[in-house]
């Protein structure tokens, strides 16, 4: 193939579901100088979110070299991956070091390159590509997601900043960041049954119920917690993610206390 001397843009992303670490995949979208777009994806088994992000970047860089691209601009919504690749951050994780080294080696093979962090909203194509790989791998009961375009409640006073930060990072926020979002007792803590359900729009309730796993559908307490966090201002898709992390942490604490 003829060498591509003009700039090629590479948008990468990756994710692990339904937990972190979890079933992981990466993806990259290559926008070539001739106007053509190419999508590449990679299945990396069970890994962390950050490893999945790296795998998307590496897959995009490898494809660009295969196509003969010589000048590339690399875009991703993971500050950690972008800044480690360009040396702004050091990579301290033994798990990520091989990914970081491989990415840096690939970058050196280009004549010129730039790497830039972009907000998650500007990386929707790579995000969707990685999501398709995950949905194909996960059992149907785990693959249903809550849509991102549902109505959102105004964040409760005292939680605005934390919720805004989590909205920006989405499911890529760390386990610790999700756990640190706490409500204390508030007006929503007292809502139960019909009184609680009536406060949640039907379209949101239907989407949440559709995305619940079989065991979650039988857990009225879990569903009530999901509804309460939605009413506090967390978007419905992130509310379910938050409650699953809390439930996983509680279950692990219980197991450890029984050992």
Write out key terms for the chains shown.
five-stranded mixed sheet, 2 domains, 259 residues, alpha/beta
Description:
This protein is elongated. The chain has 259 residues and is an alpha/beta fold. It contains twelve helices and five strands. The chain folds into two domains: 4-137, Nucleotidyltransferase, domain 5; 144-258, no CATH class. The protein has a five-stranded mixed β-sheet with strand order 3-2-1-4-5, sandwiched between helices. The protein is 48% helix and 19% strand. The mean pLDDT is 89.
Q: Could you estimate the helical fraction of the residues in percent?
A: 40-55%
CATH superfamily of the largest domain: Ribonuclease H-like superfamily/Ribonuclease H
Return the CATH topology of the largest domain.
Nucleotidyltransferase, domain 5
Sketch the major β-sheet.
5 strands, mixed
Strand arrangement across the biggest beta sheet? 3-2-1-4-5
The helix/strand order is EEEHEHHEHHHHHHHHH
Low-pLDDT runs of 5+ residues are: none
Shape type: elongated
In whole angstroms, how far apart are the ends? 61 Å
The first-level CATH class of the largest domain is given as Alpha Beta
Question: Structural class, from secondary structure content?
Answer: alpha/beta
Whole-number tally of structural domains = 2
What radius of gyration results from the CA coordinates? 20 Å
How many beta-strand runs? 5
In percent terms, what proportion of residues is strand?
A: 15-25%
Report mean pLDDT, rounded to a whole number: 89
Number of helices: 12
């Amino acid at each position: 193939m003829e060498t591509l001397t003009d700039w090629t843009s590479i948008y990468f992303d990756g994710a692990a579901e339904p937990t972190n670490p979890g079933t992981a995949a990466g993806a990259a979208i290559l926008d070539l100088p001739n106007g053509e777009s190419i999508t590449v994806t990679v299945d990396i088994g069970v890994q962390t979110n950050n490893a999945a992000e790296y795998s998307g970047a590496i897959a995009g860089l490898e494809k660009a070299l295969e196509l003969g691209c010589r000048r590339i601009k690399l875009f991703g919504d993971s500050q950690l991956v972008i800044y480690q690749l360009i040396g702004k951050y050091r990579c301290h994780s033994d798990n990520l070091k091989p990914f970081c080294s491989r990415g840096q080696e690939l970058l050196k093979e280009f004549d010129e390159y730039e790497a830039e962090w972009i907000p998650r909203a500007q990386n929707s194509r790579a995000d969707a590509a990685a999501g398709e790989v995950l949905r194909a791998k996960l059992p149907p009961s785990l693959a249903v997601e809550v849509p991102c375009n549902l109505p959102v409640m105004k964040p409760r006073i005292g939680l605005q900043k934390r919720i805004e930060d989590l909205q920006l990072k989405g499911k890529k926020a760390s386990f610790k960041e999700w756990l640190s979002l706490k409500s204390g007792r508030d007006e929503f803590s007292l809502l139960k049954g019909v009184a609680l359900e009536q406060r949640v729009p039907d379209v949101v309730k239907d989407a949440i119920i559709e995305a619940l796993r079989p065991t979650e559908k039988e857990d009225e307490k879990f569903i009530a917690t999901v509804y309460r966090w939605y009413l506090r201002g967390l978007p419905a898709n992130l509310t379910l993610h938050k409650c699953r992390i809390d439930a996983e942490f509680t279950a692990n604490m219980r197991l450890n206390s029984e050992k």
